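Protein: FAD-binding domain-containing protein
Species: Streptomyces djakartensis
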Amino acid sequence: MLVERHAATSTHPRGRGNNVRTMEIFRTAGLEQRVREAAFALAGNDGVLQVDTLTGDRRRWIIQDISAGMDVSTVSSSNWCLCSQNDLEPVLLERARQGGDIRFGTELLSFTQDAGGVRADIMSRESGETYTVNAGFLVAADGPRSPVRTRLGISQSGPGALFHNISVTFRSKALKEYVGSKRFIVCYFTDPEGEGALLPVDNEERWVVHIPWFPDRGESLEDFSNERCATHIRAAVGVPDVDVEITGKAPWHASKLVADSYREGRVFLAGDSAHEMPPTGAFGSNTGIQDAHNLAWKLAAVLRGWAGPRLLDTYECERRPVAVATSTRASQQAVEEQHPGFRPSGRNDDPADLMTVALCYRYASDAVVGGSPEQPIVPEDFELGGEPGSRAPHMWVRRDGARISTLDLYERSFVLLAGPGGRGWRRAAQLAAEELGVPVEAYLVGDGPDHDLAPEPDADWAALHGTAGDGAVLVRPDGFVAWRAHAHTPSADRELTDVLRTVLCRD
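Structure follows.
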Protein backbone atom coordinates (compact mmCIF):
# COMPACT_ATOMS: atom_id res chain seq x y z
CA MET A 1 0.00 0.00 0.00
CA LEU A 2 1.30 3.44 -0.98
CA VAL A 3 0.04 6.41 1.03
CA GLU A 4 0.64 9.74 -0.76
CA ARG A 5 -0.61 13.02 0.69
CA HIS A 6 -0.60 14.79 -2.69
CA ALA A 7 -3.61 14.44 -4.97
CA ALA A 8 -1.65 13.21 -8.01
CA THR A 9 1.82 12.70 -9.40
CA SER A 10 4.29 15.57 -9.66
CA THR A 11 3.59 18.40 -12.11
CA HIS A 12 6.99 20.10 -11.81
CA PRO A 13 9.78 19.08 -14.24
CA ARG A 14 12.53 18.13 -11.80
CA GLY A 15 14.70 15.12 -10.99
CA ARG A 16 15.42 14.56 -14.69
CA GLY A 17 18.61 12.54 -14.76
CA ASN A 18 18.12 8.77 -14.61
CA ASN A 19 21.56 7.19 -14.60
CA VAL A 20 22.60 3.89 -16.16
CA ARG A 21 22.00 1.84 -13.02
CA THR A 22 18.50 3.25 -12.55
CA MET A 23 17.67 2.52 -16.19
CA GLU A 24 18.84 -1.07 -15.67
CA ILE A 25 16.37 -1.33 -12.80
CA PHE A 26 13.59 0.05 -15.01
CA ARG A 27 14.61 -2.49 -17.66
CA THR A 28 14.23 -5.44 -15.29
CA ALA A 29 10.80 -4.04 -14.36
CA GLY A 30 9.87 -4.04 -18.06
CA LEU A 31 9.61 -0.24 -18.15
CA GLU A 32 12.74 0.99 -19.90
CA GLN A 33 11.10 1.50 -23.29
CA ARG A 34 8.09 3.24 -21.78
CA VAL A 35 10.38 5.60 -19.87
CA ARG A 36 12.29 6.43 -23.03
CA GLU A 37 9.05 7.10 -24.89
CA ALA A 38 8.01 9.50 -22.12
CA ALA A 39 11.41 11.20 -22.40
CA PHE A 40 11.57 11.54 -26.20
CA ALA A 41 11.73 15.36 -26.17
CA LEU A 42 15.13 15.36 -24.46
CA ALA A 43 16.59 12.26 -26.10
CA GLY A 44 19.32 14.23 -27.89
CA ASN A 45 20.45 16.40 -24.97
CA ASP A 46 23.85 15.85 -23.37
CA GLY A 47 26.53 17.77 -21.54
CA VAL A 48 26.84 20.69 -19.13
CA LEU A 49 27.53 24.10 -20.69
CA GLN A 50 28.67 27.33 -19.06
CA VAL A 51 28.20 30.76 -20.65
CA ASP A 52 28.17 34.37 -19.52
CA THR A 53 24.87 34.87 -21.37
CA LEU A 54 23.30 32.89 -24.20
CA THR A 55 24.22 35.65 -26.65
CA GLY A 56 27.62 36.41 -25.07
CA ASP A 57 31.09 35.41 -26.19
CA ARG A 58 32.27 33.33 -23.24
CA ARG A 59 31.31 29.67 -23.24
CA ARG A 60 32.82 26.33 -22.29
CA TRP A 61 31.69 22.77 -21.86
CA ILE A 62 32.12 21.71 -18.24
CA ILE A 63 31.05 18.22 -19.29
CA GLN A 64 30.57 17.52 -22.98
CA ASP A 65 29.67 13.84 -22.66
CA ILE A 66 28.02 12.42 -19.53
CA SER A 67 29.35 8.98 -20.46
CA ALA A 68 32.94 10.36 -20.58
CA GLY A 69 33.50 8.86 -24.01
CA MET A 70 32.65 5.35 -22.87
CA ASP A 71 30.78 2.94 -25.14
CA VAL A 72 28.10 2.21 -22.55
CA SER A 73 26.87 -0.86 -24.44
CA THR A 74 30.08 -2.65 -23.42
CA VAL A 75 29.24 -2.34 -19.72
CA SER A 76 25.44 -2.16 -19.62
CA SER A 77 22.29 -3.23 -21.40
CA SER A 78 20.89 0.28 -20.81
CA ASN A 79 21.99 3.89 -20.98
CA TRP A 80 21.23 7.04 -19.01
CA CYS A 81 18.04 8.93 -19.83
CA LEU A 82 16.67 12.42 -19.22
CA CYS A 83 13.10 11.96 -18.04
CA SER A 84 11.62 14.60 -15.76
CA GLN A 85 9.73 13.47 -12.67
CA ASN A 86 6.43 14.72 -14.06
CA ASP A 87 6.88 12.46 -17.12
CA LEU A 88 8.42 9.52 -15.25
CA GLU A 89 5.93 9.14 -12.41
CA PRO A 90 2.87 8.36 -14.58
CA VAL A 91 4.84 5.49 -16.18
CA LEU A 92 5.76 4.06 -12.78
CA LEU A 93 2.23 4.63 -11.46
CA GLU A 94 0.64 2.65 -14.29
CA ARG A 95 2.81 -0.37 -13.46
CA ALA A 96 2.46 0.03 -9.68
CA ARG A 97 -1.32 -0.07 -9.93
CA GLN A 98 -1.15 -3.55 -11.47
CA GLY A 99 -0.26 -5.00 -8.09
CA GLY A 100 -0.27 -2.21 -5.55
CA ASP A 101 -2.89 -0.33 -3.54
CA ILE A 102 -2.12 3.31 -4.44
CA ARG A 103 -3.87 5.93 -2.30
CA PHE A 104 -3.42 9.55 -3.36
CA GLY A 105 -4.76 12.37 -1.20
CA THR A 106 -4.09 10.22 1.84
CA GLU A 107 -1.95 11.17 4.81
CA LEU A 108 -0.15 9.18 7.48
CA LEU A 109 -1.16 10.77 10.79
CA SER A 110 0.70 8.57 13.25
CA PHE A 111 2.06 5.08 13.73
CA THR A 112 3.14 2.66 16.42
CA GLN A 113 5.08 -0.57 16.15
CA ASP A 114 5.80 -3.68 18.12
CA ALA A 115 7.41 -7.06 17.48
CA GLY A 116 4.44 -8.15 15.37
CA GLY A 117 4.02 -5.24 13.00
CA VAL A 118 3.19 -1.57 12.41
CA ARG A 119 -0.14 0.09 13.19
CA ALA A 120 -0.73 3.25 11.15
CA ASP A 121 -3.47 5.87 11.46
CA ILE A 122 -4.42 7.16 8.01
CA MET A 123 -6.60 10.08 6.89
CA SER A 124 -8.29 10.86 3.58
CA ARG A 125 -7.49 14.51 2.94
CA GLU A 126 -10.63 14.96 0.84
CA SER A 127 -13.20 13.50 3.24
CA GLY A 128 -11.36 13.78 6.54
CA GLU A 129 -12.14 10.12 7.22
CA THR A 130 -9.57 8.34 9.39
CA TYR A 131 -8.88 4.63 9.64
CA THR A 132 -6.20 2.23 10.84
CA VAL A 133 -3.92 0.02 8.73
CA ASN A 134 -1.96 -2.91 10.14
CA ALA A 135 1.17 -3.84 8.19
CA GLY A 136 4.32 -5.85 8.56
CA PHE A 137 6.64 -2.96 7.77
CA LEU A 138 6.61 0.77 7.03
CA VAL A 139 8.95 2.33 4.47
CA ALA A 140 9.17 6.10 4.86
CA ALA A 141 9.94 7.79 1.55
CA ASP A 142 8.52 11.06 2.83
CA GLY A 143 11.13 13.54 1.69
CA PRO A 144 13.95 15.59 3.21
CA ARG A 145 11.79 16.98 6.03
CA SER A 146 10.57 13.42 6.79
CA PRO A 147 7.95 13.48 9.56
CA VAL A 148 8.57 9.77 10.10
CA ARG A 149 12.29 10.28 10.63
CA THR A 150 11.50 13.08 13.07
CA ARG A 151 9.03 10.91 15.03
CA LEU A 152 11.61 8.16 15.26
CA GLY A 153 14.17 10.63 16.59
CA ILE A 154 16.76 9.71 13.97
CA SER A 155 19.42 12.39 13.63
CA GLN A 156 21.38 13.39 10.51
CA SER A 157 25.06 14.01 9.84
CA GLY A 158 26.60 16.46 7.41
CA PRO A 159 27.06 20.19 6.86
CA GLY A 160 23.38 20.77 6.09
CA ALA A 161 22.22 23.42 3.64
CA LEU A 162 24.76 24.31 0.94
CA PHE A 163 22.75 26.70 -1.22
CA HIS A 164 19.19 27.65 -2.18
CA ASN A 165 17.51 28.25 -5.53
CA ILE A 166 14.12 29.19 -6.90
CA SER A 167 13.05 26.89 -9.72
CA VAL A 168 11.02 28.86 -12.27
CA THR A 169 9.09 27.22 -15.08
CA PHE A 170 8.37 29.45 -18.07
CA ARG A 171 7.41 29.52 -21.72
CA SER A 172 9.37 31.27 -24.44
CA LYS A 173 8.99 30.59 -28.14
CA ALA A 174 11.97 32.72 -29.14
CA LEU A 175 14.43 31.27 -26.64
CA LYS A 176 15.30 28.25 -28.80
CA GLU A 177 16.67 30.68 -31.41
CA TYR A 178 19.33 31.81 -28.92
CA VAL A 179 19.97 28.30 -27.62
CA GLY A 180 20.58 27.26 -31.23
CA SER A 181 21.77 23.73 -31.91
CA LYS A 182 23.28 23.28 -28.43
CA ARG A 183 21.32 20.39 -26.90
CA PHE A 184 22.63 20.59 -23.33
CA ILE A 185 21.30 19.02 -20.14
CA VAL A 186 21.92 22.23 -18.23
CA CYS A 187 23.46 25.59 -19.12
CA TYR A 188 24.94 27.76 -16.36
CA PHE A 189 24.92 31.56 -16.66
CA THR A 190 27.75 33.46 -14.95
CA ASP A 191 26.69 37.05 -15.68
CA PRO A 192 25.76 38.54 -12.27
CA GLU A 193 22.52 40.01 -13.61
CA GLY A 194 21.33 36.65 -14.92
CA GLU A 195 23.25 34.12 -12.81
CA GLY A 196 21.44 30.82 -12.82
CA ALA A 197 20.91 27.54 -14.64
CA LEU A 198 18.75 26.84 -17.70
CA LEU A 199 17.20 23.41 -18.22
CA PRO A 200 15.20 22.60 -21.37
CA VAL A 201 11.88 20.82 -20.90
CA ASP A 202 11.01 20.22 -24.56
CA ASN A 203 13.74 22.14 -26.45
CA GLU A 204 10.95 24.18 -28.02
CA GLU A 205 9.12 26.57 -25.72
CA ARG A 206 9.01 25.06 -22.22
CA TRP A 207 11.99 25.76 -19.96
CA VAL A 208 13.13 25.84 -16.35
CA VAL A 209 15.58 28.30 -14.84
CA HIS A 210 17.13 28.05 -11.39
CA ILE A 211 17.75 31.46 -9.81
CA PRO A 212 19.97 31.79 -6.73
CA TRP A 213 18.08 32.59 -3.54
CA PHE A 214 19.79 33.91 -0.40
CA PRO A 215 17.42 33.64 2.58
CA ASP A 216 20.37 34.33 4.90
CA ARG A 217 20.51 37.81 3.36
CA GLY A 218 16.86 38.43 4.10
CA GLU A 219 15.45 37.40 0.72
CA SER A 220 11.95 35.95 0.93
CA LEU A 221 9.98 33.94 -1.60
CA GLU A 222 7.71 36.93 -2.10
CA ASP A 223 10.72 38.86 -3.44
CA PHE A 224 10.71 36.61 -6.51
CA SER A 225 7.83 38.20 -8.38
CA ASN A 226 7.01 37.22 -11.94
CA GLU A 227 8.48 40.52 -13.09
CA ARG A 228 11.77 39.93 -11.26
CA CYS A 229 12.05 36.39 -12.61
CA ALA A 230 11.31 37.49 -16.19
CA THR A 231 13.90 40.27 -15.96
CA HIS A 232 16.45 37.80 -14.60
CA ILE A 233 15.78 35.37 -17.48
CA ARG A 234 16.13 38.11 -20.09
CA ALA A 235 19.47 39.15 -18.57
CA ALA A 236 20.64 35.53 -18.74
CA VAL A 237 19.70 35.33 -22.40
CA GLY A 238 21.19 38.74 -23.14
CA VAL A 239 18.08 39.90 -24.99
CA PRO A 240 15.99 42.47 -23.06
CA ASP A 241 12.78 41.89 -25.00
CA VAL A 242 12.74 38.10 -25.42
CA ASP A 243 9.28 36.69 -24.69
CA VAL A 244 8.93 35.17 -21.23
CA GLU A 245 5.75 33.82 -19.63
CA ILE A 246 6.24 32.61 -16.04
CA THR A 247 4.16 29.49 -15.38
CA GLY A 248 5.34 28.36 -11.96
CA LYS A 249 7.82 28.81 -9.12
CA ALA A 250 9.10 26.46 -6.42
CA PRO A 251 11.91 26.87 -3.88
CA TRP A 252 14.47 24.14 -3.36
CA HIS A 253 17.38 23.64 -1.02
CA ALA A 254 20.61 21.83 -1.81
CA SER A 255 21.88 20.08 1.31
CA LYS A 256 24.36 17.42 2.23
CA LEU A 257 22.88 15.28 5.00
CA VAL A 258 22.67 11.55 5.67
CA ALA A 259 20.48 9.95 8.33
CA ASP A 260 22.48 8.35 11.12
CA SER A 261 20.24 5.29 10.96
CA TYR A 262 18.11 3.88 8.14
CA ARG A 263 15.99 1.69 10.38
CA GLU A 264 14.14 1.71 13.66
CA GLY A 265 12.49 -1.64 14.29
CA ARG A 266 10.03 -2.29 11.48
CA VAL A 267 10.31 1.20 9.99
CA PHE A 268 12.82 2.02 7.25
CA LEU A 269 13.91 5.27 5.61
CA ALA A 270 14.44 5.51 1.86
CA GLY A 271 15.16 8.28 -0.62
CA ASP A 272 15.36 11.89 0.53
CA SER A 273 14.24 10.98 4.05
CA ALA A 274 17.51 9.02 4.34
CA HIS A 275 19.84 11.37 2.45
CA GLU A 276 20.01 14.78 0.83
CA MET A 277 22.56 15.89 -1.73
CA PRO A 278 22.95 18.62 -4.36
CA PRO A 279 21.30 17.95 -7.73
CA THR A 280 24.63 18.13 -9.57
CA GLY A 281 25.44 14.75 -11.08
CA ALA A 282 21.78 13.74 -10.80
CA PHE A 283 22.56 11.43 -7.88
CA GLY A 284 19.69 12.21 -5.50
CA SER A 285 16.69 10.50 -7.07
CA ASN A 286 18.87 7.69 -8.44
CA THR A 287 20.24 6.94 -4.99
CA GLY A 288 16.67 6.84 -3.66
CA ILE A 289 15.46 4.47 -6.38
CA GLN A 290 18.41 2.20 -5.70
CA ASP A 291 17.63 2.30 -1.95
CA ALA A 292 14.17 0.95 -2.73
CA HIS A 293 15.55 -1.72 -5.05
CA ASN A 294 17.97 -2.91 -2.37
CA LEU A 295 15.30 -3.01 0.33
CA ALA A 296 12.55 -4.56 -1.81
CA TRP A 297 14.15 -7.95 -2.42
CA LYS A 298 15.14 -8.21 1.24
CA LEU A 299 11.62 -7.50 2.46
CA ALA A 300 10.31 -10.03 -0.07
CA ALA A 301 12.83 -12.64 1.07
CA VAL A 302 11.88 -12.21 4.74
CA LEU A 303 8.12 -12.13 4.08
CA ARG A 304 8.32 -15.23 1.86
CA GLY A 305 10.38 -17.15 4.40
CA TRP A 306 13.58 -17.36 2.34
CA ALA A 307 15.59 -15.24 4.76
CA GLY A 308 16.04 -14.57 8.44
CA PRO A 309 15.05 -11.18 9.82
CA ARG A 310 18.71 -10.13 10.18
CA LEU A 311 18.86 -9.72 6.40
CA LEU A 312 16.97 -6.45 6.86
CA ASP A 313 19.90 -5.10 8.90
CA THR A 314 22.04 -5.24 5.76
CA TYR A 315 19.91 -2.52 4.12
CA GLU A 316 21.54 0.19 6.23
CA CYS A 317 24.95 -1.52 6.14
CA GLU A 318 24.92 -1.40 2.35
CA ARG A 319 23.02 1.73 1.43
CA ARG A 320 24.16 4.27 4.02
CA PRO A 321 27.86 4.16 3.01
CA VAL A 322 26.79 4.57 -0.61
CA ALA A 323 24.79 7.68 0.32
CA VAL A 324 27.74 9.15 2.22
CA ALA A 325 30.11 8.58 -0.71
CA THR A 326 27.61 9.73 -3.32
CA SER A 327 26.59 12.90 -1.48
CA THR A 328 30.28 13.82 -1.20
CA ARG A 329 30.70 13.32 -4.95
CA ALA A 330 27.54 15.33 -5.69
CA SER A 331 28.87 18.19 -3.57
CA GLN A 332 32.17 18.10 -5.41
CA GLN A 333 30.27 18.14 -8.69
CA ALA A 334 28.55 21.34 -7.54
CA VAL A 335 31.99 22.86 -7.00
CA GLU A 336 33.23 21.71 -10.42
CA GLU A 337 30.15 23.05 -12.16
CA GLN A 338 30.27 26.31 -10.15
CA HIS A 339 26.58 25.92 -9.39
CA PRO A 340 24.83 29.30 -9.07
CA GLY A 341 24.38 30.34 -5.46
CA PHE A 342 27.07 27.95 -4.18
CA ARG A 343 30.16 29.54 -2.68
CA PRO A 344 32.07 26.63 -1.11
CA SER A 345 34.88 27.26 1.33
CA GLY A 346 36.80 24.13 0.36
CA ARG A 347 36.97 21.26 -2.09
CA ASN A 348 36.74 17.50 -1.92
CA ASP A 349 39.15 15.72 -4.22
CA ASP A 350 37.27 12.63 -5.37
CA PRO A 351 38.62 11.53 -8.75
CA ALA A 352 35.79 9.12 -9.60
CA ASP A 353 33.84 10.11 -12.72
CA LEU A 354 30.05 10.06 -12.95
CA MET A 355 29.88 6.62 -14.59
CA THR A 356 32.07 5.09 -11.89
CA VAL A 357 29.92 6.55 -9.12
CA ALA A 358 26.74 5.38 -10.86
CA LEU A 359 27.76 1.78 -11.51
CA CYS A 360 30.78 0.75 -9.46
CA TYR A 361 29.80 1.29 -5.83
CA ARG A 362 30.31 -1.73 -3.60
CA TYR A 363 28.48 -3.35 -0.72
CA ALA A 364 30.08 -4.91 2.36
CA SER A 365 27.62 -6.68 4.65
CA ASP A 366 26.45 -10.04 5.92
CA ALA A 367 24.58 -10.44 2.61
CA VAL A 368 27.90 -10.69 0.76
CA VAL A 369 30.41 -13.55 1.16
CA GLY A 370 34.04 -13.00 0.24
CA GLY A 371 33.92 -9.25 -0.27
CA SER A 372 36.65 -6.75 0.55
CA PRO A 373 35.34 -4.40 3.26
CA GLU A 374 38.64 -2.51 3.34
CA GLN A 375 38.15 -1.25 -0.23
CA PRO A 376 36.54 2.17 -0.81
CA ILE A 377 32.80 2.19 -1.42
CA VAL A 378 33.40 3.87 -4.80
CA PRO A 379 36.68 2.96 -6.53
CA GLU A 380 38.83 5.61 -8.17
CA ASP A 381 38.62 3.88 -11.54
CA PHE A 382 35.82 2.10 -13.37
CA GLU A 383 35.86 -1.50 -12.13
CA LEU A 384 33.19 -4.15 -12.68
CA GLY A 385 34.87 -7.53 -12.58
CA GLY A 386 32.51 -9.79 -10.70
CA GLU A 387 33.87 -9.06 -7.22
CA PRO A 388 31.49 -10.01 -4.38
CA GLY A 389 29.58 -6.90 -3.35
CA SER A 390 29.73 -5.25 -6.79
CA ARG A 391 27.08 -4.97 -9.48
CA ALA A 392 27.31 -8.12 -11.61
CA PRO A 393 28.97 -7.55 -15.00
CA HIS A 394 26.92 -7.07 -18.14
CA MET A 395 27.49 -9.48 -21.00
CA TRP A 396 25.51 -10.02 -24.18
CA VAL A 397 24.48 -13.67 -24.63
CA ARG A 398 21.96 -15.69 -26.59
CA ARG A 399 19.30 -17.72 -24.84
CA ASP A 400 17.02 -19.85 -27.03
CA GLY A 401 18.15 -17.72 -29.98
CA ALA A 402 17.28 -14.37 -28.40
CA ARG A 403 19.97 -11.81 -27.61
CA ILE A 404 19.79 -10.71 -23.98
CA SER A 405 22.06 -9.24 -21.34
CA THR A 406 23.09 -11.29 -18.36
CA LEU A 407 21.57 -8.40 -16.36
CA ASP A 408 18.16 -9.44 -17.72
CA LEU A 409 18.41 -12.66 -15.72
CA TYR A 410 18.43 -10.94 -12.33
CA GLU A 411 15.40 -9.76 -10.37
CA ARG A 412 13.03 -12.43 -9.05
CA SER A 413 15.43 -15.05 -7.69
CA PHE A 414 19.04 -15.81 -6.97
CA VAL A 415 20.97 -16.68 -10.13
CA LEU A 416 24.04 -18.88 -10.40
CA LEU A 417 26.14 -18.41 -13.52
CA ALA A 418 28.82 -21.00 -14.23
CA GLY A 419 31.54 -21.09 -16.87
CA PRO A 420 31.70 -23.63 -19.70
CA GLY A 421 33.47 -26.19 -17.50
CA GLY A 422 31.23 -25.75 -14.50
CA ARG A 423 28.48 -28.27 -15.20
CA GLY A 424 28.47 -29.45 -11.59
CA TRP A 425 27.27 -26.05 -10.42
CA ARG A 426 23.82 -26.55 -11.97
CA ARG A 427 23.29 -29.63 -9.82
CA ALA A 428 24.65 -27.78 -6.77
CA ALA A 429 22.16 -24.96 -7.32
CA GLN A 430 19.28 -27.41 -7.57
CA LEU A 431 20.24 -29.15 -4.35
CA ALA A 432 20.76 -25.88 -2.47
CA ALA A 433 17.41 -24.53 -3.63
CA GLU A 434 15.62 -27.70 -2.55
CA GLU A 435 17.27 -27.83 0.86
CA LEU A 436 16.66 -24.17 1.72
CA GLY A 437 13.36 -23.59 -0.10
CA VAL A 438 14.89 -20.65 -1.97
CA PRO A 439 14.47 -20.05 -5.73
CA VAL A 440 17.79 -20.34 -7.54
CA GLU A 441 18.12 -20.30 -11.31
CA ALA A 442 21.32 -21.76 -12.74
CA TYR A 443 22.80 -21.13 -16.18
CA LEU A 444 25.83 -22.66 -17.87
CA VAL A 445 27.62 -20.19 -20.16
CA GLY A 446 29.31 -21.66 -23.24
CA ASP A 447 28.92 -22.82 -26.82
CA GLY A 448 28.12 -26.50 -26.21
CA PRO A 449 24.73 -28.14 -26.80
CA ASP A 450 24.07 -28.44 -23.06
CA HIS A 451 24.93 -24.80 -22.33
CA ASP A 452 22.12 -22.41 -21.51
CA LEU A 453 23.68 -19.10 -22.54
CA ALA A 454 25.87 -18.66 -25.60
CA PRO A 455 28.33 -15.73 -25.39
CA GLU A 456 29.02 -13.57 -28.41
CA PRO A 457 32.22 -14.25 -30.40
CA ASP A 458 35.45 -13.32 -28.60
CA ALA A 459 33.58 -12.78 -25.31
CA ASP A 460 35.21 -14.45 -22.29
CA TRP A 461 32.71 -15.02 -19.50
CA ALA A 462 35.32 -16.28 -17.04
CA ALA A 463 37.67 -13.33 -17.54
CA LEU A 464 34.81 -10.86 -17.23
CA HIS A 465 33.64 -12.40 -13.95
CA GLY A 466 37.11 -13.01 -12.49
CA THR A 467 36.93 -16.82 -12.38
CA ALA A 468 38.30 -19.86 -14.14
CA GLY A 469 36.33 -21.65 -16.84
CA ASP A 470 34.77 -23.97 -14.26
CA GLY A 471 34.06 -21.20 -11.76
CA ALA A 472 30.73 -19.64 -10.81
CA VAL A 473 29.15 -16.45 -9.44
CA LEU A 474 26.04 -16.24 -7.30
CA VAL A 475 24.02 -13.10 -8.04
CA ARG A 476 21.38 -11.68 -5.67
CA PRO A 477 17.92 -10.64 -6.90
CA ASP A 478 19.12 -7.01 -7.00
CA GLY A 479 21.87 -7.87 -9.49
CA PHE A 480 24.80 -7.69 -7.04
CA VAL A 481 27.33 -10.48 -6.72
CA ALA A 482 26.77 -12.34 -3.44
CA TRP A 483 29.69 -14.78 -3.80
CA ARG A 484 32.20 -16.04 -6.33
CA ALA A 485 33.87 -19.42 -6.74
CA HIS A 486 37.05 -19.38 -8.80
CA ALA A 487 36.69 -23.05 -9.74
CA HIS A 488 34.47 -26.08 -9.25
CA THR A 489 35.00 -28.14 -6.11
CA PRO A 490 33.86 -31.66 -5.14
CA SER A 491 31.77 -30.16 -2.33
CA ALA A 492 30.09 -27.56 -4.56
CA ASP A 493 26.56 -28.38 -3.38
CA ARG A 494 27.42 -28.06 0.32
CA GLU A 495 29.50 -24.94 -0.28
CA LEU A 496 26.72 -23.22 -2.24
CA THR A 497 24.09 -24.19 0.34
CA ASP A 498 26.20 -22.73 3.13
CA VAL A 499 26.78 -19.53 1.15
CA LEU A 500 23.06 -19.06 0.54
CA ARG A 501 22.33 -19.72 4.20
CA THR A 502 24.89 -17.03 5.15
CA VAL A 503 23.73 -14.46 2.60
CA LEU A 504 20.12 -14.90 3.71
CA CYS A 505 21.09 -14.58 7.38
CA ARG A 506 19.52 -17.91 8.30
CA ASP A 507 21.04 -18.64 11.67
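Remarks: The chain has a mean pLDDT of 94.
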